[in-house]
Amino acid sequence: MGIPEKKKLSSSKTASIVDLIQSAVIAAIQELYGETIPAEQAAPTVTRKEFEGDYTIVTFPFTRFAKKKPGEIAEELGAHLVKNVPQLTRFNVVQGFLNLVVADSFWSDFLLQIADNQDFGRAPKNGQKVMIEFCSPNTNKPLHLGHVRNILLGWSCSQICEAAGYEVKKVQVINDRGIAICKSMLAWQKFGDGATPESTGTKSDHFVGDYYVLFEQKFQEEYKAWQAGAGQQVLGEKRKADQSDEQFFKDFKNTYFNEYSQLGGEAREMLLAWEAGDPATKALWQRMNQWVYDGFEETFVKLGVSFDKYYYESETYLLGKDIVEQGLASGVFYKKDDGSVWADLTDAKLDHKVVMRSDGTSVYITQDLGTAQMRYQDFGTEKMVYVVADEQNYHFQVLFEILKRLGEPYAAGLHHLSYGMVDLPTGKMKSREGTVVDADDLIAEVIEEAREASKERGEIAELTKAEQEDILRKIGLAALKFHIIKVTPQKRMVFDPKESVDLQGQTGPHIQYAYVRIKSVLRKASDLGFRIADFGLGGAGTVELPISIEPQERELIAQLYRFPAAVQTAAANYDPSEIANYCYDLAKAFHRFFTDLSILKAETEEAKAFRLQLCAAVANVLKTGMGLLGIEMPDRM
RNA sequence: GGCCCCGUAGCUCAAUUGGAUAGAGCACCUGACUACGGAUCAGGAGGUUAAAGGUUCGAGUCCUUUCGGAGUCACCA
Prior knowledge:
Elements: H1 2-12, H2 17-33, E1 45-46, E2 55-58, H3 63-66, H4 70-84, E3 88-94, E4 97-102, H5 104-114, E5 129-133, H6 145-163, E6 167-174, H7 179-191, H8 197-200, H9 204-228, H10 232-238, H11 245-259, H12 262-275, H13 279-303, E7 309-312, H14 313-316, H15 321-330, E8 333-335, E9 341-344, E10 352-356, H16 364-379, E11 383-389, H17 393-405, E12 414-419, E13 422-424, E14 427-428, H18 439-457, H19 465-485, E15 493-494, H20 497-500, H21 508-527, H22 532-535, H23 551-561, H24 563-573, H25 577-596, H26 605-628
Parallel strand pairs: 5-6, 5-11, 6-7, 11-12, 13-15
Antiparallel strand pairs: 1-2, 2-4, 3-4, 8-9, 9-10, 13-14
The protein binds one RNA strand through strand 1, helix 17, helix 18, strand 15 and helix 21.
């Protein structure tokens, strides 16, 4: 699925230097050796830093038909290219690697074109629509670190797709029904004594979560009492001799909940009442869920994310039955004697999968089948991305396979953006052991860390309180977000809270600092009477460009040049970490440039103008790039 | 046990999709402008890419086996 997209990609870019070289190589090989080579073999790669050059062609594959040594081919090819492509000034050959040097004028022309283009890197609309589902919480507990990774991936992915030219719909599915929320409801009803988030001053989703925890506590207490009394006989029969209390409870918990527990019985009654549409139960359910939504919304705002549409499982959990009928008719599904309906996916190595119970009710995957159809009707998106943890890999393989067999029109555009779970240095996050990292706590913590660091520096002390708070929020969140997004989604990651608040090194604030340095220089330049417009391309005071470019400048410009392609591949791979790493590399290159070369005290007026242009362009790309990750840039810090 | 994913410096992560001497940051050591912001920069040390075979001009990347770790295999969601 990813391969055709990549091909489409390179053909859609027009007149880029990369394409220019590529087609020139194909033509040259044809001319020199009479062989037509596939485009991949002519694709230039970026030259490694330790060699002179901008792009490299690997000549080893050509030995087969050229009947020459790689080095000789490289020499011939290099000479031919430099002669025929005006943008190439010279070349050198190392082993079989042909390093091509792009003319300074090409780079400086390019820089002038983008220096004041705020939209550089954003592609025009491509007419395609993509839906991205992310977050998808339960309503019985507040958001935690796992949700944070999910939300950041989903959000940045949506921003990247938008920049790549797609129309994006951001949706989430909220699991608002089932036994879990009934537990919170019951606990509140029995022990809440009419308390509300307002009356207790608790953030409303935490308020509801606290009752879920309370239920579990009371349930445990009830079990302990039962264990010592009425349950002794049952336990004597079921418990194996070598099992510890804890081990046994783990296995036995569900049975106890369903068959013996008073609280469990009441919770199940509540669920039945809910399903029967009992008004009082519905009202309570409505009220408590609303508290949760209000709390979630606060967290979303803090994280700077929003959604276009919310789907509620209470409204979708019955969907999908007509799909089952449809699949039975077309032979995608089959019916067993007991009336249950199955999909046979053994030829796709996915085994048999039930899609409808023998009592005619739907299962989880049936609901997903129905929801997919419903969304397609809602938005007509030919691509749908599900941002869901990798523990559901199998589920999505099955879901997509079935949709494909059903011949759904969007089936080819389905993608599971699977991401690894977040581990803590102490191991896995476990709610039972209290080792979950709460999203709100985490956000507060990183902002505090930014405050401490800022206090020592004293750079923003003279700003108003509100301005300071805004900056600290941007810095703290940049640290947190970048720390999470920079990791390839697919990989499981270790989250060390100490490292997440680091402000130095490979971090969000390090990149923000590059931006702040630029803003500071530009302010100073403006104070000295310089205005970008005065030395811009075609401006009244156009300054002639320097003929030669310093290596640090060259590296920066070449880096800027890659930005649009980076956006496109990040979108094609649904991988925000590529943008994160791009931004870091760019910031790093800028810091080096900044310390090595003087800007306002440059050797000539031309060099000064050129470098200011470069600064403006870098600031622009940093702001756009980090914006794609949901990270804001402060002007000072 | 079947299927699937992962294993790179002490730690956290890269590696332009098969290319050159495997790179960054943290931590450790050394150094830098009376300069546009030191949340910076330069340098040092740190690697048998879990192991062994194979494919080829070339393998961290592809294939096979082994070891280690995670996930999943409900008429739960």
